Amino acid sequence: MVNQSPVETALSRAMIRWSLTKSSPVAETPRSWIFRVEQNGRNFAALKILKPVVAEEEGRGARLLQWYAGDGAATVFDIHGDTIFMEWLDGGTLGDPVRAGRDDEATIAIATVVASLHRPRDGELPDLQPLRERFQPLFKTDVRAWPQTARDLYARASGIALRLFDRPTAQLPLHGDLHHDNILSSDRGWLAIDPKGVLGDPAYDLANVFINPKQANNIAADPQRIAARADILSQRLGYPRKRILGWAAAHAALSACWDLAEGQPITGLLACLPNLLSAYDQA
User: Fold this and answer.
1) Which has the closest alpha carbon to 274: 229, 240, 233, 223?
2) N or C, which end of the chain has less CB nearby within 10 Å?
3) Cα–Cα distance for residue pair 78/68, rounded to 1 Å
4) SUPFAM superfamilies under this entry (predicted)?
């Protein structure tokens, strides 16, 4: 018998464990392998096999997804080790309407998804990462890593983050990576996928909206779109507009720190950050 790779072994074990038929590879990402599988020859489902390097963080997100129990999020049927057996979603993402010029519609949909995710639930909470821990890369970054012309932006955004942590709010389980392309359409409506599993201020879950979706930097950086997004999210969810914008600015700076650490360009983030800071100042 030919030696199987670890992913082939995990796949064949999952097929047997959950009595699945036919599997076809869908994607390999830096974090996982994804397969579409068939159950009893009728229904499609997804298998996500986590890569060892990210298993801890991704496993935390998968257990939060399971805790959501399909309300506002893809349903997780079962988790075994680093393999997640879950609902198959093949609709488009919420990034599509934004890129087609329907940003308000997408923002309203995000508010609806967030309202579902933030509902109180029974059942024991999985282990989650405290939001302050998630922000350590921002606080620990050497400002000299930033382009000289953007260092004042870094300083202002870090100051806002510290102020937000100094005025704590309710601590809720957070998706932690809620952007347009992590929300997929389905026959059950728009559903979130790929949470990070964070615990903190509910307004933080909206932060990623303001620097997304991909291929729409012109929309994300537009002061009128920033204001309209903040209005819709604040009105529909009842979270303070200033906190929403504060987290948006702080998260844009955190994302820039992550990208700089990986040697990625931060041009798109630097297009958004000054406008997020001035929206926060005016709020």
Assistant:
1) 223
2) N
3) 13
4) Protein kinase-like (PK-like)
Domain of residue 235 covers 95-282
Instruction: Tally Cβ neighbours within 10 Å of residue 125.
Output: 12
Mean pLDDT of the chain: 95
Taking the C-alpha atoms of residue 21 and residue 41, their distance in angstroms, rounded to an integer, is 7
Per-residue pLDDT at 277:
98
DSSP structure string for 191-255: EE-----EEE-GGGGGGGGGG-STT-HHHHT-HHHHHHHHHHHHHHH---HHHHHHHHHHHHHHH
Same domain, 105 and 65: no
d(CA 236, CA 150): 33
Task: Specify whether the CB–CB gap between 98 and 232 falls below 8 A.
Answer: no
As a whole number of Å, the CA-based R_g of the chain is: 20
% of the chain surpassing 70 pLDDT: 99
Q: Specify whether 189 is located in the same domain as 131.
A: yes
End position of a domain, from candidates 52, 87, 122: 87
Indicate if the pLDDT at residue 41 is higher than 90: no
Q: pLDDT value at position 123?
A: 86
Of 87, 111, 145, the one marking the end of a domain is 87
What is the predicted pLDDT for the residue at 55? 84
Q: Do 238 and 106 fall into the same domain? A: yes
**Residues designated catalytic:** 177
What pLDDT sits at residue 217? 83
Same domain, residue pair 52 and 181: no
pLDDT tens profile 135-156: 999 999 999 999 999 999 999 9
Give 90: exposed, middle or buried? Use CB within 10 Å, 0-12, 13-18, 19+: exposed
